[in-house]
């Protein structure tokens, strides 16, 4: 992503006129991400309805202001120097249930809000994603996934499997309802990666199921995650840092290179799962980037595989921290920028 530009004085006046008193300045973003890392948003707007979300995006586009749509902030690393443009935080959270159809505004949290609402109504299809931090919009962006229920766990299930339709603000600023095929879903992939469409709301078609079945799946999945992943509340992270390497595993490669536990400042490759970097207190984005680059170089030198980041890098980044000499090894002679 290119570095966001500071809005010109004319653009700033336009934002203030059209977004009114809800427009905020210099808003800290770290606490709004699951990593708890990143500098402030120069301009910040919290959208509480799909209409407000569409309006804010249109305003930014009309004025030519760089903007970023912030969901739960669970799959991003925000630079230490923050975001110079407009951050639109999606807090549109309404959820409606009619029969087996569940419609959610795109800022609704998949867990707990959406899953709890579906399960309370005895509806199955979303319970697999329990414990994963994400808004509905973020979930469609990345085609949220998890392993199928125990004991089989023989395949990955995707949220696209239960999506019926969604309302978008298209890249052309039109509100349009689209069906599931529009999204061209894949693993960690959707058409939203290549089109500037914004999800305003989504409708899921679920199936009735006994409450005990839903509760069992949720408990087992939470246990599976707790055994393998560092807990988000005490060890903030952005989930998997690198994309899946089919049949091999990004986490396994990093682990086999002996990088678990490696730290740079307060950022650390999780001793529990090598594809997750945790923030042990006051980690900077520059520390995380140093670990990312080191893991890429080390794994490539040892195995020939190149690790591609799965997270998005948002905003303005300070120079990468230099790793301690004893951590660098022979593969990392150029870890500064
Ligand atoms: N499986 C796991 O264990 C984990 C999975 N995750 C994944 O991370 C994602 C986290 O979601 P979330 O925290 O809400 O997202 P984020 O706030 O982290 O934003 C991530 C990206 O999602 C896009 N996005 C967010 N909302 C919308 C929307 N309404 N319409 C279009 N695009 C949108 C934005 O893309 P753009 O920049 O193009 O606008 C943004 O870059 C989920 O997909 C989840 O699957 C995260 C942690 C763990
Ligand atoms: C956490 C995320 O998604 C998770 C998702 O929750 C789970 C369950 O469906 O499957 C994936 O994890 P994963 O642990 O299987 O992914 P990888 O990091 O590629 O690991 C693959 C395999 O390597 C092995 N592994 C992993 C970590 C480690 O330290 N050592 C190790 O040996 C494990 O056997 C593991 O199963 C998703 N990660 C990716 C990159 O595809 C996320 O997207 O943020």
From TrEMBL:
UniProt-annotated location(s): Cytoplasm
FAD-binding PCMH-type domain mapped to chain residues: 36-209
Main localization (coarse): cytoplasm
Enzyme Commission number: 1.3.1.98
EC class of the enzyme, as a word: oxidoreductase
Keywords, ordered alphabetically: Cell cycle, Cell division, Cell shape, Cell wall biogenesis/degradation, Cytoplasm, FAD, Flavoprotein, NADP, Oxidoreductase, Peptidoglycan synthesis
Gene3D superfamilies listed in its UniProt record: 3.30.465.10, UDP-N-acetylenolpyruvoylglucosamine reductase, C-terminal domain, Uridine Diphospho-n-acetylenolpyruvylglucosamine Reductase, domain 2
Keyword Repeat: no
InterPro entries: FAD-bd_PCMH, FAD-bd_PCMH-like_sf, FAD-bd_PCMH_sub1, FAD-bd_PCMH_sub2, MurB, MurB_C, MurB_C_sf, Oxid_FAD_bind_N
Active site residues of this protein: 240, 310
Cofactor(s) listed in the protein's UniProt record: FAD
Keyword Transmembrane: no
Annotated catalysed reactions: UDP-N-acetyl-alpha-D-muramate + NADP(+) = UDP-N-acetyl-3-O-(1-carboxyvinyl)-alpha-D-glucosamine + NADPH + H(+)
UniProt superkingdom: Bacteria
Pathway assigned to this chain's UniProt record: Cell wall biogenesis; peptidoglycan biosynthesis
Annotated PANTHER family: UDP-N-ACETYLENOLPYRUVOYLGLUCOSAMINE REDUCTASE (PTHR21071:SF4)
Family recorded in the similarity comment: Belongs to the MurB family.
Protein role: Cell wall formation.
Protein name listed in UniProt: UDP-N-acetylenolpyruvoylglucosamine reductase
Source organism (scientific name): Salinisphaera dokdonensis CL-ES53
